[in-house]
């Protein structure tokens, strides 16, 4: 049996009057991209910082690559890479100098040129860090996180502030890393990022995990009803629609201005019935869309938990 | 044996406490001196503060007092008083002020936070800063000495060279370590210049740097002598005085500097530990 890259059991961490982490457990397998999602203040950063060895847990079992991060061993820091959300840099040094300098601190650094190519900064290798754009700085951060050839990479909101093009580039870089067998621990606010990168997602709210699963199935996403939307031509009413399959799981709603929303567990059959009817009867329905709930829909539902899951401790 | 097991056992070997690991860290510290030097000379603000500022004072005071002598010091040429004085001041700027600003900037920018995620021990990084600082101090001192001699006819000490070197070494090491500690008093780089000037400028005025304080009230002398700048200036001035015989060592000045060096080491150690503290 392979040892998990990260193993957390019943983790607790409390700041003066706030229980930031209240009994969190999860494991991350080697080679997996694990994503921690959650609103601000959910305890994501605290959990991540405990894993990185920047904070000490109050209680619970934490192992990162088999080590206790609280012991702050150099041998563990040799094997992890951390891309901080707001990590500063020696701004007077150039990209090539920084990659070389940080690389010296590790026993087996990756070659400077290879890393600079990987994050697509080769055109700017002799530019000082202080003169880089936000997106370029973030890519430099990624290069410095990878310079020690880590087995486990922590990415804290790696594409915040990127333009859409740069985000796509960063994602393909991160995807390529997974091909090298690296384990990635990702925190992000972006649903599309989690959807694209993660093998598994855990949603954290109020210091607890409220759901865990693949991007496709988390929160029962795969079991949620399909939503079919279209508009009827002027004058046509809901009464003209045929009987729809799906029994009691199918509901039809008039959304005003001729718009119709249908939710059903029998997405395929209902779509077929509606489009078949429209063609046969010559009804020009418009703006037809068939959609599964998005990860964002599921996430919003999960994070709209009642207030009793947050752990404000009375003083 | 699988690859992972081979790998972790080699890690254990590499980090067994011993001279091998220490030698590697010392080599890393030497590299850090080079990187810190490169950063330093590219940041014009620091270079101006450390080199141009004291040089400007030398030019002004040297020109204003050409051929002057100091009666209270037995007719000592003013320039032979002023060159060691301004060197002591330059040492303060290049070591104490500059190091405190460097550490504050690293903390403020979040560089120290990033450092903690790497295997590099914090002390190695700080050692790089200390080494680089001493190098800048040596360069600044050499420039002042050359300009003072070439343009203003200052006397170059010969038989008192041991006094010059030992006083400089002790003073600059003490002030560098104190500067690292002082970074804890500085909340931001923006306010840093002000805070540090508030600390060093009054001390400079009572430390025999710009003019001799001969005949100053005793209590002011006592205050001045408690800080490291005064014994550094006094010690250097004694060694630069052509009338001095012997090696140019002033034991009570060196003793005060040594006490500050010990205090600086304690404060620096605590600062580094504080940087690594977690909650």
Automatic annotation (TrEMBL), chain A:
EC number: 3.6.3.-
Biological processes annotated in GO: response to antibiotic
Membrane-related topology note: Peripheral membrane protein
GO molecular function: ATP binding; ATP hydrolysis activity
Annotated ABC transporter domain residues: 6-231
SMART domains recorded: AAA (SM00382)
Keywords: Antibiotic resistance, ATP-binding, Cell membrane, Hydrolase, Membrane, Nucleotide-binding, Translocase, Transport
The UniProt record lists the keyword ATP-binding: yes
InterPro entries: AAA+_ATPase, ABC_transporter-like_ATP-bd, ABC_transporter-like_CS, ABC_transporter_ATP-binding, P-loop_NTPase
Gene3D superfamilies assigned to the protein according to its UniProt record, in alphabetical order: P-loop containing nucleotide triphosphate hydrolases (3.40.50.300)
Keyword Translocase: yes
SUPFAM superfamilies: P-loop containing nucleoside triphosphate hydrolases
GO cellular component, one term: plasma membrane
Pfam families reported in the protein's UniProt record: ABC_tran
Localization (cell): Cell membrane
Coiled coil residues, start to end: none
PANTHER family (UniProt xref): ABC TRANSPORTER ATP-BINDING PROTEIN, ABC TRANSPORTER ATP-BINDING PROTEIN NATA
Name of the molecule in the record: Daunorubicin/doxorubicin resistance ATP-binding protein DrrA
Provenance organism: Paraconexibacter sp. AEG42_29
Gene label: drrA_5
From TrEMBL, chain B:
Transmembrane segments annotated in the record for this chain: 46-64, 76-102, 123-152, 164-186, 193-211, 249-268
Family annotation (InterPro entries): ABC2_TM, ABC2_TM_bact-type, ABC_2_transport, Nod_factor_ABC_transporter
Origin superkingdom: Bacteria
UniProt domain ABC transmembrane type-2: residue ranges: 45-275
GO cellular component, one term: ATP-binding cassette (ABC) transporter complex
Listed GO MF terms: ABC-type transporter activity
Topology relative to the membrane: Multi-pass membrane protein
Pfam family, one: ABC2_membrane
Subcellular location(s) of the protein: Cell membrane; Membrane
Keyword Transmembrane: yes
PROSITE patterns found in the cross-reference section: ABC_TM2
Keywords tagged on the record: Cell membrane, Membrane, Transmembrane, Transmembrane helix, Transport
The keyword Chaperone belongs to this UniProt entry's keyword annotation: no
PANTHER family registered for this protein in UniProt: NODULATION PROTEIN J
Family: Belongs to the ABC-2 integral membrane protein family.
Name of the molecule in the record: Transport permease protein
Species, as recorded: Paraconexibacter sp. AEG42_29
């Amino acid at each position: 049996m392979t040892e998990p890259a990260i193993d957390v059991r019943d983790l607790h961490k409390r700041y003066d009057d706030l229980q930031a982490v209240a009994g969190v457990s999860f494991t991350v397998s080697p080679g997996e991209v694990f994503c921690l999602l959650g609103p601000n203040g959910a305890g994501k950063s605290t959990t991540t910082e405990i894993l990185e060895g920047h904070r000490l847990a109050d209680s619970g079992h934490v192992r990162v690559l088999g080590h206790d991060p609280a012991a702050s061993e150099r041998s563990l820091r040799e094997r992890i890479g951390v891309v901080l959300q707001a990590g500063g840099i020696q701004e007077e040094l150039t990209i090539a100098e920084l990659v070389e300098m940080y690389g010296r601190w590790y026993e087996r650094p990756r070659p400077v040129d290879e890393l600079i190519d990987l994050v697509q900064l080769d055109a700017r290798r002799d530019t000082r860090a202080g003169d880089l754009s936000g997106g370029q700085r973030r890519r430099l951060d990624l290069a410095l996180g990878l310079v020690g050839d880590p087995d486990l990479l922590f990415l804290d909101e790696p594409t915040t502030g990127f333009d859409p093009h740069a985000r796509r580039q960063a994602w393909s870089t991160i995807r390529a890393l997974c091909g090298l067998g690296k384990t990635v621990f990702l925190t992000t606010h972006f649903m599309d990022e989690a959807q694209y990168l993660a093998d598994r997602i855990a949603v954290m709210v109020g210091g607890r995990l409220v759901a865990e699963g693949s991007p496709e199935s988390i929160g029962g996403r795969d079991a949620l009803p399909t939503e079919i939307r279209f508009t009827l031509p002027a004058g046509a009413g809901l009464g003209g629609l045929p009987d729809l399959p799906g029994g009691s799981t199918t509901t039809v709603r008039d959304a005003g201005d001729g718009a119709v929303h249908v939710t059903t567990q029998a997405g395929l059959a209902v779509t077929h019935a509606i489009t078949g009817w429209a063609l046969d009867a010559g009804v020009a329905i418009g703006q037809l869309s068939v959609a599964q709930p998005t990860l964002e829909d599921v996430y919003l539902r999960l994070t709209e938990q009642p207030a009793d899951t947050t752990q404000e401790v009375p003083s | 044996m699988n690859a992972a097991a081979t790998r972790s056992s080699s890690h254990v070997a590499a980090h067994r406490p011993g001279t091998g690991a220490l030698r590697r860290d010392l080599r890393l510290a030497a590299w850090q001196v080079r990187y810190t030097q490169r950063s330093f000379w590219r940041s014009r603000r620091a270079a101006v503060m450390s080199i141009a500022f004291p040089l400007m004072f030398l030019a002004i005071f040297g020109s204003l007092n050409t051929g002057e002598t100091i009666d209270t010091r037995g007719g000592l040429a003013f320039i032979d008083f002023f060159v060691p004085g301004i060197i002591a001041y330059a040492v303060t700027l290049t070591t104490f002020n500059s190091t405190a600003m460097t550490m504050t900037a690293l903390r403020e920018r979040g560089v120290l936070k990033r450092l903690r995620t790497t295997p590099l021990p914090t002390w190695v990084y700080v050692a790089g800063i200390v080494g680089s600082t001493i190098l800048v101090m040596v360069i600044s001192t050499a420039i002042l000495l050359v300009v003072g001699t070439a343009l203003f006819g200052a006397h170059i000490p010969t038989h008192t060279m041991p006094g010059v070197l030992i006083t400089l070494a002790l003073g600059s090491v003490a002030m560098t370590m104190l500067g690292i500690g002082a970074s804890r008093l500085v909340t931001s780089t923006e306010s840093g210049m002000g805070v540090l000037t508030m600390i060093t400028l009054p001390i400079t005025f009572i430390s025999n740097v710009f003019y001799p304080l001969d005949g100053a009230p005793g209590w002011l002398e006592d205050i001045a002598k408690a800080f490291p700048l005064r014994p550094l200036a006094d010690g250097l001035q004694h060694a630069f005085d052509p009338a001095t015989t012997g090696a140019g060592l002033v034991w009570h000045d060196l003793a005060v500097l040594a006490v500050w060096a010990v205090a600086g080491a304690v404060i620096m150690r605590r600062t580094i530990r504080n940087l690594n503290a977690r909650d």
